[in-house]
Amino acid sequence: MKISIEKRTLRTDGTRSLRLVYDYGYTTNTQGGRQNKRKRSYETLDLYVHDKPKTPTQRQHNKEHMLLAETIKSKRLVEWQSQKHGFEDRTKRSASFIDYFQRQVDIKEQTTSTSNHSIWLSAR
Predict the structure, then answer these.
(1) 24, 48, 106, 122: which has the fewest C-beta neighbours closer than 10 Å?
(2) Do 99 and 83 lie in a common domain?
(3) Domain with 67 in it
């Protein structure tokens, strides 16, 4: 598997969004031959870079966001390698679902209507 960073199409404000591309390689047909179809998946990062930076501030912004995208890419690659070799992710095992759900309820309280928030409270 290969993970790469892709700059998406130009937006109206002159920025491009970044996403990770997970390339799993070519698929095989029933006879074992390679098809010309590649299997890929994508993860949007909600990071944006200026297409043609004009100021030092825009250039610095691009450097920071590209560095952050590279860091996320490296983390995903380490996670994939760990899973491939059978290592256990202790952070996922020790996480509490109740704590996670409470954080979601708190977010819903601030961002949605009271009726929606009450549904989340009832579910908790």
Answers:
(1) 122
(2) no
(3) 2-87
